Amino acid sequence: MSSISHVADLDYFYGFGYDQSTDDYLVVSMSSPYHTKSYLEFFSLRAYKWKQYPTHINYSNSTEDDRKAGSLFNGAIHWIASRCDLQEDVIVAFDLIERKLLHMHLPDQFEIDYYCGLWVFREFLSLWNMDKDTVEIWVMKEYKVHSSWTKTHVLPIIDAIPANYFYPLCCTKSGDIVGTYGYFKLMKYNDVGQLLGCCSYFNNQYGFQVAMYTESLLSLPGDTQEEE
Question: Which residues form the F-box associated beta-propeller type domain (predicted)?
Answer without folding.
Answer: 14-182
